[in-house]
């Protein structure tokens, strides 16, 4: 029996989905987290396991597992996090997943539209920008109610890289990445600081370029080490924080994949930008100050993902 209102559904109970469900349950901000999958038993078993940790960790959110591809019990969700889809294997690019994951994401999105027509949808399946665009098309939801998770993760990776390079606490480092999740990720050095000082004052340009490169390849670095599956601890932290911001109507400004409609002189594309997140999803895209180079990089990223997103309607 749920102790508070609110329901979040996490579709896909693989590594990303199960860790997202655990984090959301531990936040204790909704009565119910529903974890689903096409597999029978896995979501039910994970839900039971997470619920049994409640008295130790001190949270009351109940996790409900729903297997066999069913959407029973997900109805009327406030937020749906879509993690269903294959992850990368070593040597694969995110784009190698597009055909398989498009079929999965389309089917999931149609079911979400049917069962939770008022939900805010957070997509994480890869390739991220394209799957977010596809989920919006397939749900038919307003663009502000469909967003993707990538920028929170890329920014967190950049922050960790800078903190470890300088040997300083992560809390003293602020970084930002915009653009797309992948080759056209746009780091924003002008918005990066260490203890309030510009990053460029505490690190030479070559080191910054090296860390940017490492950030851009952060997902592949983990995939190569794991050998099977892709990262999920940092990714699930990012998606869960986005879902929490929606539930709490927080107005938090986060780097997310959002529909851009005129900001930065860019229109009609899902792109990594900073956005204010609230109960209605993306309240607004927040246009920050960028240098001419950064703005040019963002516009280039927009054109690169625009072409790929135009094709998703046929997938
Ligand atoms: N956006 C990001 O920053 C980011 C980061 C890491 C991973 N990812 C992506 O997240 C996705 C999931 O990764 P993972 O590590 O959890 O993979 P995983 O293989 O561990 O789990 C995927 C789960 O989806 C389920 N599934 C497949 N089709 C389904 C359907 N139609 N309905 C419901 N469930 C379905 C599978 O049975 C499986 O349990 C991958 O596409 C991966 O590339 C994105």
TrEMBL record:
<feature type="binding site">
    <location>
        <begin position="12"/>
        <end position="17"/>
    </location>
    <ligand>
        <name>NAD(+)</name>
    </ligand>
</feature>
<dbReference type="InterPro" id="IPR001557">
    <property type="entry name" value="L-lactate/malate_DH"/>
</dbReference>
<dbReference type="Pfam" id="PF00056">
    <property type="entry name" value="Ldh_1_N"/>
</dbReference>
<feature type="binding site">
    <location>
        <position position="37"/>
    </location>
    <ligand>
        <name>NAD(+)</name>
    </ligand>
</feature>
<feature type="binding site">
    <location>
        <position position="126"/>
    </location>
    <ligand>
        <name>substrate</name>
    </ligand>
</feature>
<dbReference type="InterPro" id="IPR011275">
    <property type="entry name" value="Malate_DH_type3"/>
</dbReference>
<protein>
    <submittedName>
        <fullName>Malate dehydrogenase (NAD)</fullName>
    </submittedName>
</protein>
<feature type="domain" description="Lactate/malate dehydrogenase C-terminal">
    <location>
        <begin position="153"/>
        <end position="309"/>
    </location>
</feature>
<feature type="active site" description="Proton acceptor">
    <location>
        <position position="181"/>
    </location>
</feature>
<feature type="binding site">
    <location>
        <position position="88"/>
    </location>
    <ligand>
        <name>substrate</name>
    </ligand>
</feature>
<dbReference type="GO" id="GO:0006099">
    <property type="term" value="P:tricarboxylic acid cycle"/>
</dbReference>
<comment type="similarity">
    <text>Belongs to the LDH/MDH superfamily. LDH family.</text>
</comment>
<dbReference type="InterPro" id="IPR001236">
    <property type="entry name" value="Lactate/malate_DH_N"/>
</dbReference>
<dbReference type="InterPro" id="IPR022383">
    <property type="entry name" value="Lactate/malate_DH_C"/>
</dbReference>
<dbReference type="GO" id="GO:0006089">
    <property type="term" value="P:lactate metabolic process"/>
</dbReference>
<keyword id="KW-0816">Tricarboxylic acid cycle</keyword>
<dbReference type="InterPro" id="IPR036291">
    <property type="entry name" value="NAD(P)-bd_dom_sf"/>
</dbReference>
<keyword id="KW-0560">Oxidoreductase</keyword>
<feature type="binding site">
    <location>
        <begin position="124"/>
        <end position="126"/>
    </location>
    <ligand>
        <name>NAD(+)</name>
    </ligand>
</feature>
<dbReference type="Pfam" id="PF02866">
    <property type="entry name" value="Ldh_1_C"/>
</dbReference>
<feature type="binding site">
    <location>
        <position position="101"/>
    </location>
    <ligand>
        <name>NAD(+)</name>
    </ligand>
</feature>
<feature type="domain" description="Lactate/malate dehydrogenase N-terminal">
    <location>
        <begin position="7"/>
        <end position="148"/>
    </location>
</feature>
<feature type="binding site">
    <location>
        <position position="94"/>
    </location>
    <ligand>
        <name>substrate</name>
    </ligand>
</feature>
<keyword id="KW-0520">NAD</keyword>
<dbReference type="InterPro" id="IPR015955">
    <property type="entry name" value="Lactate_DH/Glyco_Ohase_4_C"/>
</dbReference>
<feature type="binding site">
    <location>
        <position position="157"/>
    </location>
    <ligand>
        <name>substrate</name>
    </ligand>
</feature>
<dbReference type="GO" id="GO:0004459">
    <property type="term" value="F:L-lactate dehydrogenase (NAD+) activity"/>
</dbReference>
């Amino acid at each position: 029996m749920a102790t508070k209102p609110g329901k979040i559904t996490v579709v896909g109970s693989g590594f990303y989905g199960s860790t997202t469900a655990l984090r959301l349950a531990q936040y204790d901000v909704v009565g119910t987290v529903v974890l689903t999958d096409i597999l029978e038993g896995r979501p039910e078993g994970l839900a039971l396991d997470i619920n049994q940790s409640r008295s130790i960790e001190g949270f009351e959110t109940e996790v409900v597992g729903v297997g066999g591809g069913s959407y029973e019990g997900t109805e009327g969700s406030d937020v749906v996090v879509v993690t269903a889809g294959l992850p990368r294997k070593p040597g694969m690019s995110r784009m190698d997943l597009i055909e398989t994951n498009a079929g999965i994401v389309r089917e999931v999105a149609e079911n979400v539209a049917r069962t939770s027509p008022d939900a805010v949808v957070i997509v994480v399946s890869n390739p991220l920008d394209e799957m977010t665009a596809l989920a919006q098309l397939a749900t038919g939801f307003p663009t502000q109610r469909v967003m993707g998770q990538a920028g929170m993760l890329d920014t967190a990776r950049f922050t960790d890289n800078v903190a470890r390079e300088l040997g300083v606490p992560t809390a003293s480092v602020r970084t930002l990445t915009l653009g797309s999740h992948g080759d056209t990720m746009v780091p924003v050095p002008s918005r990066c600081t260490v203890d309030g000082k510009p990053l460029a004052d505490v690190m030479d340009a070559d080191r910054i370029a090296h860390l940017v490169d490492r950030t851009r390849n952060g997902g592949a670095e983990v995939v190569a080490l794991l050998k099977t599956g892709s990262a999920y601890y940092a990714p699930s932290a990012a998606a869960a924080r986005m879902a929490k911001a929606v539930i709490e109507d927080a107005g938090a400004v986060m780097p997310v994949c959002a529909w851009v409609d005129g900001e930065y002189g860019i229109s009609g594309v899902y792109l990594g930008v900073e956005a204010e997140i609230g109960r209605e999803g993306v309240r607004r895209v927040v246009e920050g100050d960028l240098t001419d180079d950064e703005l040019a990089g963002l516009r280039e990223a927009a054109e690169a993902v625009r072409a790929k997103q135009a094709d998703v309607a046929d997938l």
